Amino acid sequence: MRRHLLFPISALALAGLFIVTACSTEADAYSRKPAQTPPDGPGRVVRSNEGIDPAVCNPIHNINACTPDNPPSSKPKAQAIPAPIEKVTIVMLKSYPAQYVLNITSGLPSGCAKFGHVSWVVEDSTSTVEVQVYNLMPSSPMMACTTIYGYSTNSVSIGSLTPGKTYTIKVNDYSTTLTA
After folding, report:
1. Do residues 128 and 167 touch, judged by C-beta distance below 8 A?
2. Separation CA 147–CA 12 (nearest Å)
3. For residue 131, is pLDDT > 60?
4. DSSP secondary-structure letter at 140?
5. Are residues 85 and 118 in the same domain?
6. How many domains does the chain have?
7. Nearest to residue 116, comparing CAs of 131, 138, 133?
8. 85 and 122 assigned to the same domain
9. Fewer CB within 10 Å: C terminus or N terminus of the chain?
10. What is the mean pLDDT of the chain?
11. pTM tops 0.70, yes or no
12. Are residues 94 and 148 in the same domain?
């Protein structure tokens, strides 16, 4: 009994599929327009780059995608931003007068971050040592970067300090004290 019902049901389903396909309108076929060849030649995708640095190629979002026919117009620009400080170690060298070195471990928050530079000022009158550590990051927010957190270790020789004086050492947002 079931065998006799199975054939008519499958035949009806197949016939319904054929009718739906055959009855689609001509307007449906034109609503899915094929890709147009841009006026500047085949193989090149032209998109708006309003608000995006045109020098940056971004194949992830296919905006200004770099190809052999469409290389970047220049290197992506980088901006210096303060680096996150992970660790600061103060080392006193065996010398006379005593010399001090700061070993600074800073974070690289993404695969695009590169160590930039360190600048420092020793103010003996205010007993402060101010150190700024910078990373270089792409200036374009559309740059695709990995989320791999890295580290960079750098040494800064701050020289000799006045013996017996307490100094405040500031490295970006990290702060500690040292009695020379």
Report:
1. yes
2. 54
3. yes
4. -
5. yes
6. 2
7. 133
8. yes
9. N
10. 74
11. no
12. yes
